[in-house]
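Structure ticket #2291
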Amino acid sequence: MSTDVTDKLPAAAPPGKGGSSAGGGLLQLMLGGLRRNMRQYGMLIALGLIVIFFEIWTGGDLLLPRNVSNLVLQNSYILILAIGMMLVIIAGHIDLSVGSLTAFVGAFAAVLTVNHHVAWPVAVVLCLLMGAVAGSLQGFLIAYFGIPSFIVTLAGMLLFRGLTEILLAGQTLGPFPNGMQKIGNGFLPEVGPNTNYHNITLLLGIVMIAAVVWQEVRNRRRQQEFSLEVAPVRLFALKIIAMVAAIAWLTMLLASYDGAPIVLIILGVLVVGYGYVMRNAVFGRHIYAIGGNLPAAKLSGVKDKRVSFQVFLNMGVLAALAGLVVASRLNAASPKAGDGFELEAIASSFIGGASMSGGVGTVLGAIIGGLVLGVLNNGMNLLSVGTDWQQVIKGLALLAAVGFDVWNKRKSGS
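Resolution: structure written out below.
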């Protein structure tokens, strides 16, 4: 049975201290809500602090419209991989092959469009199908043969890297057709009157704000209908205001430059779609079930083998999409493309709240984790920090995130 929050508040404030009592009550509610949702909000707060830190240290360069746009373009493929990797980790598996598969798909796209002059839309479809085939082969071995995902995907990492070298003969191949280049480098077209801002981007920002507010209000009402505990009204209002302010700020930054990148629209569709699947669809709940407690999931009738197979098939498609984005951004396919991408995607997932034991994590958390790494990379590049120290700092960030997860679980258990 849920308890109404108002029952926990003082019935009346002492004379002359009503204002301070109300302020203290709001502060207590906010801190209580933060403690109960530490896993969800902890890294979001950390991201905000990292942004503020580098914005001050770089003298305001971090949040310049041009740099924000570059930040999106430079990290889009890692964020795409992080979404798929989060699902894999929630299901209790790991995928070490996504970086090599990304390079292989990019090489496959270059061979099709440059060597064989295949129309780029057809090449895109074929590349996504290639990713699905690669993911399904690995998923079949993991789900139906029972081979550990670590071993299968480690073999896949070596296999796809070798196939990339074979396809490209050790050489860089490009350039791509103009239409394909826009996947990783293009922006939405400008239409309408001259307002000194990108009109379509402004419109998309307004639509996004309306959608976020509607979704949050809808979720709150559904929780109340099922007598679930919800955040206090004032804390809920603060959350809405913060989300609206963040979207409006990002919209104005992008609209004051060249507008929203095309890859940002692709990423937004993925976040909304996968977020809905993981929250509301049966498939998403089955992923959480097999990762959280596999024996119980089997007893409940969950077809764990089929779910695991589909998770890796999905990862293959997203790795193919990331490969297309990387290749189009570089305007060439390279044998060394995708090096370390699997580690970046795994780190993004764990920083974003995934658990080593599976069953825990969100799509939004993967995006937040990827942005933490992206802002760290971008900020350190602006400050001319060497790559050696960048690796040290990112390693410490990953260690801190996993340590925080372990500490949070122990505290919750106690």
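Closing remark: The chain has 16 helices and no strands.
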